[in-house]
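Deliverable D5.2: sample structural annotation.
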Amino acid sequence: MNLSWQVATIRGIPIRVHITHLLLLAYVAFEVARGFSFDYAYLIQQFGIAPRPLLLPHAFWGITIALGLFVSIVLHELAHSMVALASGVRVQSITLMALGGVSQMELRYMTPGREAWMAFAGPLTSFAIGAIFLVTTLALPGHPGDLTAAGLLFAQINLMLAVFNLLPAFPMDGGRLLRAALTPWLGRLRATRTAAVVGKVMAGLFVLAAIVTRNPILILIGVFIVLGASAETAMVEAQTLLAGRRVGEFADPRIGGVTAETPLAEVVERMRAGKLVAVRVGDGVNGPGAGYITLADLKRLGSNIGSRRAGDVARRNILRVWDSTDAAAVAAVLPSRGKEAIVVDPDNGEPIGLVTSADLARVMSGNEVPEELRGPGAAIT
């Protein structure tokens, strides 16, 4: 089920909104509206501003500030993306989720200095937005109380967004800044592991704070940090292990051939009997390919085969790469494209085989794992 929707394209970058981000905006709108009068009274007391009447419904300002937060997070993520584009890194998409945004970028090495600048660009943008609204609101104290309250609240939210993202924990920007600072001394892999450990310690502190304050949101943040730290560590370990190796080394050659008219039941039997990982569907084994059927495709179909034929279910959009393609790049592309398999082709002739996400994951265990990845704290799956 697709739980995110594309709402815009900026500089060729698709902007998507996940359903959890909509829930976040609804929560922000509700909380702002509920506490608008109280927050206004507190803020004007802190800044020494004379109180003025609130004219518009609180719900209006709750919705307005929530929409403003949406724009702020987009600008935050675009700041990361603009630095990435300037560094020659392709940005595939920006997805706004429950606890912020995620910029999906192609896997490419960046110097620690460039990575630090890319990570800091987002919080810097949030700081700038917060500072602009704070200075502007305080410089114009004569406008209605609604605008004073909204301006100060919006400034506060953006400043908090900047500070939160500077926490030294993955997947926040502060975790990447910490890694960039440690990389010249520890190397990228150990720097990532160290930053991940720091992040997990912070996650534990968030959970303790959640127990003391009885705030379940802090538990969600702690879980978010642990998952982000584990995912970042696994990705960098994969990069370290697979970088420079041909993806063809890991291709499973057990691919059969059927025609588009072959009954699907026969395809299932052939794959079972021949222990195949996929079949190529075309006009004869050597004809123009109409697509592929993999084991994962058959599992999704289950018993829903009926009288269908191979051509009815063959996937024509399966990814294909050359045998010489870097395996680390493939490991990054498969999950980012939402694919579980990729066909490996030689310069000419029949496909060499199929590589799945599971195949590359298996490389991360057993005898394939070099000594540098076997130390304590290795997150090998």
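Annotation notes: The CA atoms of residues 22 and 255 lie 43 Å apart. The first helix runs from residue 19 to 34.
The annotation will be released with the project's public dataset once the embargo ends.
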